[in-house]
Amino acid sequence: MSQEMKEAGKRACYACIQWDGQRSYYADKQIIKVDPGKEGLCRVSHKKVRGSSQCESFYALR
């Protein structure tokens, strides 16, 4: 598992509140530690999607 530090403002599934994949969110720095290639459940589409995917229904982490 290769974890990367990503910006929280990106329109990607790993930065969406509706994605149930494994990640660590550091709100003070606006950074997410995630493996973007891993899959997680999207609560909007009810399907498994990669963290690097993008969708129309994006809700940013706060």
Q: What descriptive keywords fit this protein?
A:
single chain; 62 residues; mainly beta; two-stranded antiparallel sheet
Can you describe what's shown?
With about 60 residues, the protein is mostly beta strands. Helix content is about 0%, strand content about 30%. It has one domain (about 5-50). Strands 1-3-2 form a 3-stranded antiparallel sheet, with no helix packed on it. A hairpin with a 4-residue loop joins strand 4 and strand 5. It is globular, with a radius of gyration of 10 Å. The mean pLDDT is about 95.
Write the layout of secondary structure elements.
Blueprint: E1 4-7, E2 23-26, E3 31-34, E4 39-42, E5 47-50
Antiparallel strand pairs: 1-3, 2-3, 4-5
Give the overall shape, derived from the CA principal axes.
globular
* Contiguous helical run count: 0
Series of H and E elements: EEEEE
Alpha-beta content class: mainly beta
Strand order of the largest sheet: 1-3-2
* Straight-line distance between termini: 25 Å
Sheet with the most strands, sense and barrel status: 3 strands, antiparallel
The portion of residues forming beta strands comes to 25-35%
How many DSSP-defined strands?
5
**Rg, alpha carbons:** 10 Å
Oligomeric state as shown: single chain
Q: What's the number of structural domains?
A: 1
| Range of helix content | under 10%
Mean pLDDT: 94
What are the segments in which pLDDT stays under 50 over at least 5 consecutive residues? Answer: none
